[in-house]
């Protein structure tokens, strides 16, 4: 296919500058997004097993609820029933609660002894998975615009530019697409190999990237979209609001758990009930949020669907299940969420999105490296702007990965000294992240890349080691937690990959092209 040279140059310029302007932010978002595919597993791994109480048989839940409501005032305001074997059967917030992220929430867990007596214990919430997800949504940018995170808006703009980069990149490749798509030309130098890898990853994962780009734009600017619709609809509300009741309910009228299961059975056919969250029980506006999940079907949430109903009358106020009765709007919105979260194909789909997320991060990282090499070749000597971008690329990309890895590493150790671990996660991430950026500017970017990659390998390797040895330092009454899980095994694989990358960067720095921005002399060590 032939395309005029001037047209190709125009699209080359669009592709280059949209990529440069958004690449570093999108690298953070994609890397963190890959990890959030297994957010529940990360949080389960992070919470020590001794913070959860033993489950009780479903027929004894009413007994547990009755005792808790009679003895604890906070439980009467609202509580959560969990059916997960790895979680306490009942818990409620002694401090905090509700929507949003808070780092100091306090939970009371409750269960029954064999003799039917209630037992409780306090714990803080663990927000490790939520904070990684927040990093994915905002790229770590702090601040608010109205009720929306500033980082979400910035990433929405970045996604729009990113879509332009995708389209322009495809146009650039069209003339040689069939001939060179799978050609990884190692014999023509490392730059050519990087370019071939960049093009291959971009084309193969193009549908995924288009989905992510457009869904991010919708998520970021949905308020603006609704505002535009408001001009069309005028004073007529876009969504039907439920009629507020004047009836004040009493917690003594709460139905049994068997009644709830019977009422929900028709709506949740094919779904598994994960939890039931009760709130505002002694008011005119009581609520029950039922979390359900299934495999192989579209879900509105990242990991589950929800049904919101009145806990006394069972009147459904809203649900996210993909039902035909919701009309066209519901399935469309559900599809947008499911396409972004990758929850429509079970565990296989999550692993695919995990891989695509990592490949997306590679796409932005390699794009910056290719731009740096191209700039260097057009100049007689390396300019300060080129060195600045090289240091920024290394600091931001490798620093974000190191910050997340270090926050995961310290989890097991933080629980030995404090139960308020969430604020420490933030400190760990931002200190490591900005420390890596400063280091990459103080030292040569190539040398910084070698050192940070080796440190990444070490930190990831220490994650499973910490899982195994941290129980040895726990109080004697604590339950040992020394089994390696999927989080540990993935961390070990990452450690091997980072060490391999460090060796490759070292080889290129000392034995590669001497005029490259990544070249080092022996004196540079």
UniProtKB/TrEMBL annotation:
The keyword Transmembrane applies. Pfam families: PepSY_TM (PF03929). Keywords: Membrane, Transmembrane, Transmembrane helix. The chain crosses the membrane at residues 20-38, 152-178, 199-221, 351-371, 392-416, 422-441, 453-473, 479-501. It comes from the Bacteria. InterPro entries: PepSY-ass_TM. The keyword Membrane applies. This is PepSY-associated TM helix domain protein. It comes from Shewanella baltica (strain OS195).
């Amino acid at each position: 296919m032939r395309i005029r040279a001037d047209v190709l140059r125009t699209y080359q310029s669009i592709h280059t500058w949209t990529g440069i302007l958004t690449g570093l932010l999108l690298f953070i978002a994609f890397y963190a997004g890959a990890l959030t595919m297994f957010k529940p597993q990360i949080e389960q791994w992070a919470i020590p097993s001794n913070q959860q109480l033993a489950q009780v048989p479903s027929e004894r839940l009413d007994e547990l609820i009755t005792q808790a409501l009679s003895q604890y005032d906070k439980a009467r305001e609202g509580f959560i029933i969990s059916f997960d074997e790895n979680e306490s059967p009942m818990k409620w917030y002694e401090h905090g609660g509700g929507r949003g992220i808070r780092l100091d929430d306090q939970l009371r867990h409750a269960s029954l002894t064999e003799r039917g007596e209630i037992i409780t214990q306090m714990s803080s919430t663990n927000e490790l998975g939520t904070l990684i997800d927040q990093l994915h949504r905002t790229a770590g940018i702090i601040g608010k615009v109205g009720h929306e995170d500033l980082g979400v808006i910035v990433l929405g703009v970045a996604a729009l530019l990113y879509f332009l980069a995708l389209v322009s990149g495809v146009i650039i490749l069209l003339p040689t697409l069939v001939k060179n798509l799978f050609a990884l030309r190692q014999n023509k130098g490392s730059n050519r190999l990087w370019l071939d890898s960049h093009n291959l990853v971009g084309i193969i994962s193009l549908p995924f990237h288009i989905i992510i780009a457009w869904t991010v734009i919708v998520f970021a600017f949905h308020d603006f979209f609704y505002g535009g619709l408001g001009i069309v609809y005028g004073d007529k509300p876009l969504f039907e609001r439920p009629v507020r009741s004047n009836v004040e309910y009493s917690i003594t009228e709460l139905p049994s758990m068997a009644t709830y299961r019977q009422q929900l059975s028709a709506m949740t056919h094919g779904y598994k009930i994960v939890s039931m969250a009760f709130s505002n029980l002694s008011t005119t506006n009581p609520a029950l949020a039922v979390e359900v999940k299934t495999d192989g079907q579209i879900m509105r949430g990242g990991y589950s669907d929800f049904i919101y109903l009145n806990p006394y009358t069972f009147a459904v106020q809203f649900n996210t299940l993909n039902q035909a009765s919701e009309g066209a709007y519901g399935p469309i919105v559900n599809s947008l969420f499911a396409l972004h979260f990758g929850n429509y194909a079970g565990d296989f789909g999550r692993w695919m999105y995990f891989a695509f997320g990592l490949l997306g991060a590679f796409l932005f990282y390699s794009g910056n490296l290719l731009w740096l090499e191209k700039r260097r070749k057009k100049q007689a000597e390396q300019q300060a702007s080129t060195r600045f971008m090289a240091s920024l690329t290394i600091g931001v990309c490798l620093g974000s990965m190191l910050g997340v890895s270090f926050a995961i590493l310290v989890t097991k150790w933080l629980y030995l000294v404090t139960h308020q671990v969430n604020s420490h996660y933030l400190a760990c991430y931002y200190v490591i992240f900005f420390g890596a950026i400063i280091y990459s500017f103080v030292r040569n970017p190539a040398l910084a890349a070698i050192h940070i990659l080796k440190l990444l390998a070490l930190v990831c390797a220490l994650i499973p080691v910490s899982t195994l040895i941290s129980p040895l330092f726990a109080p004697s009454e604590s339950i040992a937690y020394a089994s390696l899980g999927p989080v540990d095994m993935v961390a070990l694989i990452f450690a091997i990959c980072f060490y391999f990358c460090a060796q490759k960067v070292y080889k290129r720095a000392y034995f590669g092209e001497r005029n490259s921005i990544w070249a080092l002399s022996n004196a540079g060590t």
